[in-house]
Amino acid sequence: MKKNALLVLFMIMVIAALSGCSSSGSKDGKLVIGIDDKFAPMGFRDENNEIVGFDIDYARAAAEKMGKEITFQPIDWSAKESELNSGRIDMIWNGYTITDERKEKVLFTKPYLENSQVVVVLADSAISKLEDLAGKEVGLQSLSSAADALNANPIKDQIANLSEFPDNVLALTDLKTKRLDGVVIDEVVARYYMSKEPNTFKLLDESLAPEQYGIGIKKGNEALLELLQKALDEMNNDGTAAKISTKWFGENKVLK
Predict the structure, then answer these.
(1) What interhelical angle do 222-238 and 240-249 show, nearest 10?
(2) InterPro entries of this UniProt entry (predicted)?
(3) How far are the Cα atoms of 93, 119, 184, 187, 197 from residue 207, in angstroms, in the given order?
(4) Number of compact structural domains in the chain
(5) What count of other Cβ atoms lies within 10 Å of the Cβ of residue 246?
(6) Res 256: pLDDT
(7) How many CA atoms are closer than 13 Å to the CA of 182, on its beta-carbon side?
(8) Which range of residues forms the domain containing residue 103?
(9) Cross-strand pairs, 15
(10) Domain assignment of residue 169, yes or no
(11) pLDDT band with cut points at 50, 70 and 90 for residue 159
(12) What is the dihedral sign for C-alpha 91, 42, 95, 222?
């Protein structure tokens, strides 16, 4: 009986190991994509509570070319790499900035969109340049590339206080109520909210850091990375990417 039990256990371990070695890195042709569902216009909830956005459309189009089914899983953005490495999600795909530090944790596709970190203030604010933030209250999304950009700038040591928020919406809300003087945020996000609330915000002329977005995949899953990159390249070549970009940005911003 013991031998039979050991044999059964061995077979279960072999099956589990084989299952984990899928060439696509997904289970049953399905992929779970981790997103921040308050990151407009990349991925967010509309008035019907449906998840929409540029990255959402972009991911769906790529999945179709890959022959995969996808679901979008809102996650705690500050734990995104942990969610990926634990296997709870298969990709991080929602305005995910490529950095050297993140490259040590995940695999990245080629950059597909350019962005920069900027500072948003109220439209009637006297703040007009970065040095004006000295002695002011500043906010940003926790564990985001906004934090990296601010930390790399000398103004970081001159601000009065830095508040971190779970998402950009909460930071901008505190800015509107004047609990903050400025918010460090992705330019694509800032411009989206500026278009939705005219005459509420303005951008400082100086940006903190240029950056590029990529899709993050668990290290060791090169097969899935290759499959995804092939789909993205096809979308660039056949005009799919340009069509999605024009829908959300009014022009083709997708990098080739």
Answers:
(1) 80
(2) Iontro_rcpt_C, Solute-binding_3/MltF_N
(3) 24, 7, 10, 9, 21
(4) 2
(5) 14
(6) 87
(7) 28
(8) 25-112+214-249
(9) none
(10) yes
(11) very high
(12) positive
pLDDT in tens, 181-231: 999 999 999 999 999 999 999 999 999 989 999 999 999 999 999 999 999
Selection from 120, 118, 129 nearest residue 175 by Cα: 120
What DSSP string runs through 58-123? Answer: HHHHHHHHHT-EEEEEE--GGGHHHHHHHTS-SEE-SS-B--HHHHTTEEE----EEEEEEEEEET
Residue 62 resides in a domain: yes
**Residues in the chain, how many?**
256
pLDDT digits (tens, 9 = 90+) for 43-77: 999 999 999 999 999 999 999 999 999 999 999 99
Task: Give kind and range of the element (H or E) at residue 38.
Answer: strand 38-39
- Residue 201 host element (H or E): strand 201-203
| CA neighbor of 256 nearest in space, from 239, 65, 210 | 239
Given phi > 0 = left and psi -120 to 50 = alpha, else beta, which region is 199?
left
Give, as one character, the DSSP assignment of residue 218.
E
The enclosing H or E element of 43 equals strand 43-45
In CATH, what number is assigned to the domain containing residue 129?
A: 3.40.190.10
Distance, CA of 16 to CA of 50 (rounded, Å) = 35
Is the separation of the CB atoms in 72 and 92 below 8 Å? no
